[in-house]
Amino acid sequence: MFDFLEGYNVLGAFWMTVKLTALSAVGSLVWGTLLAAMRVSPVPLMRGFGTAYVNIVRNIPLTVIIIFTSLGLADIFGMTMGAPDDFDVQGFRLAVLGLVAYTAAFVCEAIRSGINTVPLGQAEAARAIGLSFSQILRLVILPQAFRTVIGPLANVLIALTKNTTVAAAIGVAEAALLMKEMIENEAQTLAIGAVFALGFVVLTMPTGLFLGWLSKRLAVKR
Amino acid sequence: MSSVLYDTPGPRAKRRNVIFSVIFTVLLVLILWWVWRTLDDKGQLEWSLWEPFTEAQAWTTYLLPGLGDTLKASALAMVIALPLGALFGISRLSDHRWVRATASTVVEFFRAIPVLLLMLFANEFYVRYSDISSEQRPLYAVVTGLVLYNASVLAEIVRAGILSLPRGQSEAAMAVGLRKGQMMTNVLLPQAVTAMLPAIVSQLVVIVKDTALGGVMLGFTELLNSRGTLAANYANVIPSFIVVAFIYIVLNFILTTFASWLEARLRRSKKGTGAVLGGDDVDDINAGEVGGTATIGTGGKK
């Protein structure tokens, strides 16, 4: 019944999806937190940069960004990502870069809304005992904000898992690209579709359930 | 709210802010300078590459038809997905368990799958089981993929819209003796549709962005795809990317602004229940809404 799977590395393709997701998640968490810090900082120029970045990147299709990493960054700017000859590795790293650039805008917005849920009194008390802006952010606001944004961040992570399929557009050998190849060459259209659909359900559902549980457990009781 | 994080700057803080501004400016300028120099080296700043955009031909042959296809696919997807979404959203609120369970399974399934997989599948399905011409097929496949995904998202928006109404509405409807169907069509839906409008407009942004996938993976002649043809003709990779990105930004910015305007207007309005679904709720629903539906519909009232 599952003969059509023979000769195709389905698990390998999904492993690529997982790697894309994991690396992009870490990267966008770091860059997104930095952007959020810029958006609430006292320096007007940084605030402006953060706002502009988020509004521009959120309104461009991810596909445009991913294609640009290949045709623009790699071909024109010569950013070979440390692998000028190995196009598989280069494509993978470019895809991660594109995904980080795009997802960070959503991470930034999630964290910023988390910062807004921390009660005024917390920041006022922190200022009253003379903490500086970076101390207020590091010691008082962000630890509380991160706990309330686990739910929204989990949403971003699930969206990111689904968005990694866009990397197929620059030939990264992940699940969607393999599905395209298989579905064109094999007869069992429906079965192939079901296998890949199930793969994504398996990837996103545990993430959602675990992080949903975590966000309830860590929620700041007020 | 952000200004709560720091005091009104005094002389020292002002000096520090200036120093940070200067460092940040220098960094930005260095990056921009590098970008400018690389583009100049590669000849991407030549006027001949930008000139096509000042003439009518590049627009009438490539960009406008591409934008037209993007808008056509988005509009079709939205128009078809809305009634489907409403059907599934209302089914999820049904009193009969099997209706609820079926609708929930379908909605959760299609929401968990990347829209690209749905498009690829629809395309292959049409190749094998239909006689749609190969010119029309990409449009059909893109719209089908978008409809399957967005109907499930809109189902959640409809459900959240109805749930966001105060309980008193359905209680009052029951008290005056309306049937379940009457309550839905005469009391709940009209109010929920108003509450959902901003969310529906925000979802259009997601649809517009997703059409670009069809352009790359299925050869659908939308805006991003036309950029490729245009760049192949004029050899202007970077200029064409900048122009196309700009078109997307303007289009989506208009939609986002319209959605926030609607949201603000509904919140201010004295009529109605004040229940509104905004852009933030849409982001959550698109992703899979881990925090539970309890938070949906309270987006702006925190």
What does this structure look like?
Chain A: Residues 14-211 form the ABC transmembrane type-1 domain. Chain A: This is Glutamate ABC transporter permease. Chain A: It is a multi-pass membrane protein. Chain A: GO terms for molecular function: transmembrane transporter activity. The complex is a heterodimer of chains A (222) and B (302). By secondary structure, chain A is mainly alpha-helical. Chain A has helices at residues 10-39, 44-58, 62-74, 87-117, 120-128, 133-148, 150-163, 175-185, 189-218. Chain A has 9 helices and no strands. By secondary structure, chain B is mostly helical. Chain B contains 11 helices and no strands. Chains A and B meet through helix 2, helix 3, helix 4, helix 5 and helix 6 of A and helix 1, helix 5, helix 8, helix 10 and helix 11 of B.
Radius of gyration of chain B: 24 Å
What distance separates the N and C termini of chain A? 55 Å
Kindly give the count of domains of chain B. 2
Helix and strand content put the structural class of chain A at: mainly alpha
The main pleated sheet of chain B reads as:
none
Protein name (chain A): Glutamate ABC transporter permease
Transmembrane segments (chain A): 12-38, 59-79, 91-108, 152-178, 190-214
Pfam families (chain A): BPD_transp_1 (PF00528)
Domain ABC transmembrane type-1 (chain A): 14-211
